[in-house]
Amino acid sequence: MAVGLVVLFFSIGFSSGMVQNYKTNFSRNFTRLFKNFKSEKLPPIETPIPDVQYATEVKSNKIVSLEDMNTSKFALYKDGIICAKMNHLTYIDGTGDVAWETDTAIVDPILKTEGGYILLAEKGRNKICMYNDRKLIYDIDDPDTIIAAELSSAGDAVVITDKSSYKGGISVYNKTGAKIFSWASGSDKVISADISAASRRVAVSLLNTDTTVGSAIQLFDVNKTESDARIAVDDTVIFNLRFIGDLLCGFGDNRIVGISSNGNVVYNQIFENEQLTHCAIDTNGSKLLSLDDGNIPILNMYNKRGSLTASTTLTGVTDFIGIKNKTIVYNLGRDVYFGKINSDNIIRYAAAMDVKDLIIISQRSFVIVYSNSIEFVTV
Q1: Which of 13-22, 57-66, 162-171 has the lowest mean pLDDT?
Q2: pLDDT of amino acid 52
Q3: Residues 329-374: pLDDT tens digits?
Q4: Coil, helix or strand for 70?
Q5: Distances from the Cα of 1 to the Cα of 166, 173, 198, 258, angstroms
Q6: Hey, what long-range contacts does 95-101 have (CB within 8 A, 24 or more apart)?
Q7: I want to staple 215 with a disulfide (CB 3.0 to 4.6 A). Which of 123, 202, 238, 305 is the partner?
Q8: What is the Cα–Cα distance from 304 to 363, expressed in whole angstroms?
Q9: Do 245 and 209 contact (CB within 8 A), yes or no?
C-alpha cells in the first residue's frame, strides 16, 4: 500500500472532536475493560526539547506548477508522483518531469496506488477505474455509493459503500474488475477496510455507539460469506486499517493494535495521556505517530511488531508526517524536516509557501505539495 500521511480525520465524517463527544456522552463512567489484550503502555517521555543544528543545503529542488490543485489528489507511484483530478491523471517522475497524462471518467477521485496499480474511485458516486500506468484495466460501477477505497499490491480493490438499508458495506474487486466478495453491516458503522495481498484476508473496522463508543474489527476470507474472527476494541475508534503482509495494523484515537490473520492480538499500544494526531506507515510496517501530551509534541516510531524503536520531542505541532524505509518527513509551519529520526543528518528545508502535504519519494528525495504547485527536493 502506498505510503502516505494519515491524519486523524475520518473521511466518512468522524473527527477527533466528534470522537471525544461520543466518549463524553456515552462513556462518562466507562471503566476500561481491555482484559483480553496484551497492554504495552508507553513509559512517560521526559527528554527535553533538543537544541539541534540542522543542515539546510539541498542538492536540488524543482517546482512544478499544476492546474486545479484544490481538487487534486496526490500519491506515491513507482519513482514519482501521481496526480489525480477531475477527469485527468498525470504521472510526474522523480526528477519533476511529466512522464505521461491521460483522461479519466472520474470526476471527484479517491486515489490509491500500490505496486504498478492505480485505483480511482468516484467519491459519492459509483464508478471504479483501475490503471497500470496510463493503461485502463477496467471501468466498472458498484451498485452502491462509494465512500472510501483501498488497494493491495495484488491489484485487489476494497470499496466502502453507503449501502441502502444497512449501516455500511464493502465490495472487493480483483485486478480484472470481477467482484469477488461483498458484505453489509446491519448494526455498526463501517469506518475502514483493507485486504491482504498475501492471503486475501479482508479486515473491516466497525463503530458502535449504542451504549458506549467502541470499535470491532472483523476478518473475512473472500471465499466465505461469514466473518471468522471478530476482535472488540473498547473505548476506541479504529479509524484506519492497514495490512502489512498478513499482519493487520489498526490505528485508533488512543492506541494502535496489531492483529494476526487468524484474529490474535499481537500488540496493543495504549496512549494513556497522549492524543494521537497524525500517523503514517510504510510498506515494511514501520509506523510514525505524532502525539500530543498537552505540553510537548512527540514523534514516536514503532516497528512492524508494535515495539517503540525511537522517539523525539518537537518544538511545535506538526501538520504532516510521512515515513518510508525508516526515513521520515514532517513539517513545523513552513520548515520541513527530512531524514532519519534522532540522527545528525536531518535536513531542515524552508518551503516556499504553506505546506499542504508531504510525500517521500526515496531516502534522498521528497515532495512538498502547495496550493498551486508541487516541489521536488533532493538532499
Answers
A1: 13-22
A2: 66
A3: 999 999 999 999 988 889 999 999 999 999 999 999 999 999 999 9
A4: helix
A5: 28, 16, 12, 17
A6: 95/62, 95/376, 96/62, 96/63, 96/64, 96/376, 98/64, 100/133, 100/134, 101/134
A7: 238
A8: 19
A9: no
